[in-house]
Amino acid sequence: MSRPKSGARSPDDELAPELATGHLDADLGRRSRRGGALLLGAQAVRVVGQLATLVVLARLLPPQAFGLLAMVAAIGVVLDFLKELGLSSAAIQKTDLTQGQVSALFWINAAAGLLLAGALALAAPALAHFYGQPELVDVTRWLALGFALSGLTVQHWALLRRQMRFTAIAGLETAADYAGFVAAIAVALAGEGYWALVVQRLVSPAVLLVGSWSVCRWRPARPARAEGVGALLRYGLSVTGAGVATALSRSFDQILIGWLWGPVTLGLYERTSRLLMLPINTINAPVYAAGMPALSRLVEQPERYRRMFGQIVQKLGLLTMPAFAVAAVVADWLVEILLGPAWREAVPLAALFSVSATSLPVLMCMGLLYLTQARTTEMLRATLADAALCLLAIAAGLPWGAVGVAASLAIAGLAVRTPVAFWLATRHGPVRQPDVWRAVAPPLTVAIAAAVTGLAVRAVLPPGISVPSVATVGAAVLLAMLLVLLAWPETRREMRSGAHHLAILVRRRRPVLEP
Predict the structure, then answer these.
(1) Is there a single domain that holds both residue 268 and residue 358?
(2) Whole-prediction pTM value?
(3) 3-state DSSP percent of the chain in helix, strand and coil, to 5
(4) 408: which residues sit within 8 A by CB, 6+ positions away?
(5) pLDDT digits (tens, 9 = 90+) for 458-484
(6) Do 146 and 80 touch, CB atoms closer than 8 A?
(7) Which end of the chain, N or C, is less packed with Cβ atoms under 10 Å?
(8) Burial classification of residue 236, based on how many CB atoms lie within 10 Å of its CB (0-12 exposed, 13-18 middle, 19 or more buried)
(9) Are 15 and 99 in contact (CB under 8 A)?
(10) CA torsion, points 198, 203, 208, 214, in degrees to nearest 10?
(11) Do residues 226 and 200 both lie within one domain?
């Protein structure tokens, strides 16, 4: 991907200031940190809403309703990548993007969204026949509309991320999520069953479409050829191939479970998986949104690039790995509190998905190395290898049902997929494998300490959930985590730095008393 001299701007950038990025370079680190913090804060608000909606809908709808939607959603995950064609990443990564190029990308994404919507609508009867669920015909056709809507949003969203307009991104994502939540709960309360989930999947992309066009003032030119689009398409197609492989590896288990055991079992499997994947997806989104534009502009500064990537991995690991390790230990409590007693069969699934989730955020973070260094062909090969490992794990666990699949994926994720992903991602570029393991070591040890402590304390407590039991486990786990954090020099420095900044913030906000 070509890179102009610092500060250089194309003539088209003068006409479309939404494409310019030179003004971001002066305080790139500050923008990235501030943007990451802002997006994480917004994601926390979104997670609260998503969890609340999940809890409410789990009590209003049976597992079968979620299973029906999951049958279509498993295919929709793959179609999402085909709709985008990797062109949002291409637009963000290219530093000298022109008006003609982004207009061409817009029309390509719009056409892809419409074609996929039409294809899915036509395939609805075949999909219903495959699963043996006649209701899927109408459900599939309505869900197809979402691809047409989101195809019109891809490039506006990419330009907002390219410009590092994190406040707008956070606001739009939160508004879209909450609009979908409110609509779904209202329809469920009206007694419309699984249609509540269909409405939720249509309201959110509609809000994002209107919001992104309102906030991003860029408008596409008429369809025309543009120089350099071929290179962007080649970049995007490699990203798409990797995304489709990843999506297939994540959806194949749900497709087989739905086909073999029906919507009830799939509903249990999908809801439990979603419960644990919810924090991962919401955390990874701001990590990519803040990290990709920043790292893309540090590729020619290896030391700064290496340092920033290590900080991203370590902070992401500290945020997620201990939390999921504890979730595995208290899976029965989580299911009872969040999903209710009707979902008790999901407890072993929740524990196993939590084990898988400990390594997933850091593993997914490896994609930043490929994307920001324009190593998309390597990313495709690495993703295909990871997808093959996932499919082998699913096949190995399938004879033991949904729990066997979850167990096989957990073992493969920790023992095989993560080490292989680290090795493949660091074969080229400024970040090497020891750098990644060095960054992961503190969160990994904290997670192990948290899980061991939680298991030890639960072993001496009476069975069942109670406020004293939760408080005791929580206090013991927090103490163990703090002790391990203090044992690492880098985390001690981070804690001192955080305490220092907090003290400054408190002093600034403290009212000045008149003498």
Answers:
(1) no
(2) 0.73
(3) 85, 0, 15
(4) 393, 394, 396, 397
(5) 999 998 889 999 999 999 999 999 999
(6) no
(7) C
(8) buried
(9) yes
(10) 160
(11) yes
